[in-house]
Design a protein that fits this description.
The structure is a homodimer of 98-residue chains. With 98 residues, the first copy, chain A, is α+β, with helices and mostly antiparallel strands. Chain A contains five helices and three strands, in the order H-H-E-H-H-E-E-H. In chain A, strand 2 and strand 3 form a beta hairpin. The longest helix of chain A is centred in the middle third of the chain and has 13 residues. Chain A is globular. Chain A binds a DNA duplex (30 and 30 nucleotides) through helix 4.
DNA sequence: ATTATATGCAAGTCACGACTTGCATGTCAA
DNA sequence: TTGACATGCAAGTCGTGACTTGCATATAAT
């Protein structure tokens, strides 16, 4: 799976991006705890780890290893490709409501 | 299915949005022909119709009925919610590369 | 060295979405 | 009306992704 849109399709992965937006640079354990608490998601550590792998494979998350901990950082730049692909207009030329 | 991100997850639906970006206001038959020709997708009419239903349910496509024809229009405004949710920064504050 | 901590890998189950097939509905022209 | 055209509805198959379970690896502390 190396598709930006499929990566965004899973609610758990969007919650991970939300969590990293609130506080960047969290470890896997921190993300597990916070996802369970704040977002009400009851996922196993492995499930969250797999989601982070997907996010990293599409460039939405970068990681940094320090000792036995792995820190995760959000990178929103891939999202720009969405707007470049389907420009947001002011709805004048796209509908024919006359 | 009424989820913006799941709607964007299917390549066929993204191709439909591409096609409507190129030429807005196409009918189901026109979209079937053009998807097969230009995008190389061999999908049945019903499959494309179902994809259009999904796009309409999340507000990415609006429709207009005229007689026995149904015209489809793209509406990119729902995409704005993506950027509002995860703001695109200039990568200064999101990484800790010091 | 031993133990606890933090993460990684692999195989397996299972549900949901993508797609098809078949038939039905509605509109326009002869 | 009849027939052709454009679309809609419903049920069924099938593959893939989400999640789990179990074990393995690597780092830090005692």
């Amino acid at each position: 799976m190396n598709d930006l849109f499929e990566a965004l399709a899973a609610p758990a992965r969007r919650a991970l991006l939300d969590e990293l937006t609130q506080q960047n640079g969290q470890t896997l354990f921190e993300l597990c705890a916070r996802l369970t608490m704040k977002h009400g998601l009851g996922l196993s550590r492995q499930a969250i780890s797999q989601h982070l792998d997907v996010l990293e494979s599409v460039g939405l998350v970068t990681t940094e290893r320090k000792g036995r901990c792995k820190f995760h950082y959000i990178d929103t730049r891939p999202l720009m490709s969405i707007l470049e692909r389907w420009p947001i207009t002011n709805r004048e030329e796209q509908t024919s409501e006359d």
